UniProtKB/TrEMBL annotation:
The chain crosses the membrane at residues 12-32, 129-147, 153-174, 203-227. PANTHER family: MEMBRANE PROTEASE YUGP-RELATED. Pfam families: Zn_peptidase_2 (PF04298). It comes from Eubacterium ventriosum. This is Peptidase. Keywords: Membrane, Transmembrane, Transmembrane helix.
Length: 236
């Protein structure tokens, strides 16, 4: 018998994951706002700093573009486009340049053949497929539970969701490495001095926690699925 139709004590795992993610999100937003008040001594905008960083590494084939939103910054290795948000593209503060440098870190990883980012990029379609299909399999498995196929569908759903969790875990070293590259290149190019580097480390550290929180939340969700549906028999 599947428990969960009435009181499900495993919901506490979901609540814990939500609290962790909300706390990490609030922390990164407050940290970014705090250090966005400090104008960079270089006077460079996020876009200008990104161009300077990439060129310092011999990278000339990456397009830097503006996208809407705040902290929606990203680097797309498939078309070599580095997108900077409203909060970073034309801003001259320490936080904005730090975030732009972090995205440049991903471009550097791609250019240098950093293995973990290649693994993460290869996992993207499987993670997307897994996160979408897992709940369909689990729901259908519940509906057919007891006729011999339910547990198989549930197990496949758990495996599919595990792919999304694996993607979150592989993302962690990629993000930490990109931040490390950002700090080093900001120092080596002279874009930031010691105080600015210290502030940037706080911004990027807070941003890294959001990825840790997302991974932790996914693991807790996977644990819940295993507790609820893993290894049961259809006649239980």
């Amino acid at each position: 018998m599947l428990y969960g139709y009435y009181f499900d004590p495993t919901y506490v795992l979901i609540v814990i994951g939500m609290v962790i993610c909300m706390a990490a999100s609030a922390h990164v937003n407050s940290t970014f706002r705090k250090y966005s008040k400090y104008r960079s001594n270089s006077g460079l905008t996020g876009a200008q700093a990104a161009k300077m960083i990439l060129e310092s590494q011999g990278i000339y084939d990456v397009t830097i573009q503006h996208i809407g939103g705040d902290l929606t910054d990203n680097y797309n290795p498939s078309n070599k486009v580095l997108s900077l948000s409203d909060a970073t593209y034309n801003q001259t503060n320490v936080a904005a340049i730090g975030v732009a440098a972090h995205e440049c870190g991903h471009a550097m990883q791609h250019a240098k053949g950093y293995a973990p980012i290649s693994v993460r990029n290869a996992l993207v379609p499987f993670a997307n497929w897994g996160s979408r299909l897992s709940w369909i399999l689990i729901i259908v498995g519940i509906l057919f539970y007891g006729n011999g196929t339910g547990q198989t569908l549930l197990d496949l759903g758990i495996i599919a969701f595990s792919l999304a969790v694996l993607f979150q875990l592989v993302t962690l070293p990629v993000e930490f490495n990109a931040s490390g590259r950002a700090i080093r290149v900001l120092e080596s190019t002279g874009i930031f001095g010691n105080t600015e580097l210290k502030y940037t480390k706080k911004v990027l550290g807070a941003a890294a926690l959001t990825y840790v929180a997302a991974a932790a939340s996914s693991i807790l969700q996977l644990l819940r699925l295993v507790i609820l549906f893993g290894g049961r028999n259809d006649d239980q």
